[in-house]
């Protein structure tokens, strides 16, 4: 099982950038960069990730034996770990669900973001979880653990997350992507539900038809089945 070594920073530009620097200097598998706040937090599709104190921001250097082509699979591994960690901190009636590709939602609001990036022969897995507050000024509904009635500190959320991540990474390394894909599907939008997918300035509307073997989104549209590797998904409508 992976052993984590946490390096803590009060304030940093982006934990993903710092983890990339450390990886280039040879930092081992399991090195964790954790910051109390980020001044240049990055999200998917070149977006900003607002990172005030009170939430969890960390990035992990991973050097899995698997080929670089499997980087996208890590995002699904991470989403399962985040969902388990968040569930453990929420009141019993609340439960995290998953939205393609790697969003974790509670009460329909995004509570965490995941950014997996290839850096040479390492993968940098960046995770942000809204613990105390959901940032404003974003164009989608957001949630936080405390806002949903949960009890959590940032360090407590970090420790839960790392324990859950060690568990799901173990499953992935030993049994491959198939069990990850199955577990992800069990917590995601049901097959047949309506999804709107934004691909740059184009929109595709269709019914969710599952995940391809590599994690690509399968969408049944009036024009046939589409295979989508990058985009933004809205459920319903
Ligand atoms: C998303 O767009 O949903 C992904 C957001 C990822 C944010 C995390 S916070 C820790 C790490 N450092 C960054 O700059 N980004 C990731």
Outline of the structure:
The protein is of the alpha+beta class and 237 residues long. It has helices at residues 15-24, 71-89, 154-175, 177-186, and strands at residues 5-12, 31-38, 56-62, 97-99, 103-106, 109-119, 122-129, 194-199, 202-211, 217-221, 224-228, 232-235. Strand 4 and strand 5 (103-106) form a beta hairpin.
Radius of gyration: 17 Å
Overall mean pLDDT? 94
Proportion of β residues? 25-35%
Distance from first to last alpha carbon: 43 Å
Biggest sheet features: 7 strands, mixed
* Shape label: globular
The helix/strand class is alpha+beta
Q: In DSSP terms, counting alpha (H) and pi (I) runs of 4 or more, how many helices?
A: 4
List the helices and strands and how they pair.
Elements: E1 5-12, H1 15-24, E2 31-38, E3 56-62, H2 71-89, E4 97-99, E5 103-106, E6 109-119, E7 122-129, H3 154-175, H4 177-186, E8 194-199, E9 202-211, E10 217-221, E11 224-228, E12 232-235
Parallel strand pairs: 1-2
Antiparallel strand pairs: 2-3, 3-7, 4-5, 5-6, 6-7, 8-9, 8-12, 9-10, 10-11
Bound molecules: biotin.
